[in-house]
Design goal:
Keywords: Isomerase. InterPro entries: RpiB_LacA_LacB, RpiB_LacA_LacB_sf. This is RpiB/LacA/LacB family sugar-phosphate isomerase. Pfam families: LacAB_rpiB. This protein is of the alpha/beta class. It has a single domain, classed as 3-Layer(aba) Sandwich (Ribose 5-phosphate Isomerase B, Chain: A), CATH 3.40.1400. The chain is built from 6 helices and 5 strands, in the order E-H-E-H-E-H-E-H-E-H-H. The protein has a 5-stranded parallel sheet, with helices on both faces. The longest helix is centred in the last third of the chain and has 17 residues. The protein is globular. The protein starts with a strand and ends in a 6-residue tail after the last helix. The mean pLDDT is about 95.
Length: about 150
């Protein structure tokens, strides 16, 4: 299962990607926005997708203007590892890092490139020891600064 979320700036690309996911027989759930609303806020959709990804141990794709806002919001959620992807190389890196969520730019990413990114990211790859070591260090940082009293 892949959970999708977008604000207004990523809405059109998300809708295009839904058609791609259907054609490729990927299972997905759209967590919103369900209509274009120029006044919506990306953190709302990032949080909805992050909760689903964590609760179901699945993957997510977030869409906003540049991908950066969604990426920042998603990476604030304890347990989530998200990465902005804009080309095939960043998709391969996100795959190697075993990120939970990728974020895409609705303003700067062409639909065909978004499709390539998603295919690469979802294609199983071996994760080498150095990446496993580095991911562990990132998770250690997250745990060190996690304060449940702040939630």
């Amino acid at each position: 299962m892949i959970y999708l979320g977008s604000d207004h700036a990523g809405f059109e690309l998300k809708e295009r990607i839904k058609e791609f996911l259907k054609r490729e027989n990927y299972e997905f759930e759209d967590m919103g926005a369900y209509i274009y609303d120029e006044n919506d806020d990306y953190p709302d959709y990032a949080l909805k997708v992050c909760k689903k990804v964590l609760n179901n141990r699945e993957k997510g794709i977030l869409f906003c203007g540049t991908g950066q806002g969604m990426d920042i919001a998603a990476n604030k959620v304890f347990g989530i590892l998200a990465a902005v992807c804009w080309n095939e190389e960043t998709a391969r890196n996100a795959n190697k890092l075993n990120v939970d969520i990728i974020t895409l730019s609705g303003r700067l990413t062409e639909p065909r490139m978004a499709e390539k990114i998603i295919k690469i990211w979802l294609n199983p790859m071996d994760i080498d020891d150095r990446h496993i070591r580095r991911i562990k260090k990132v998770k250690d940082i997250e745990r060190e600064f996690f304060n449940p009293k702040m939630i």
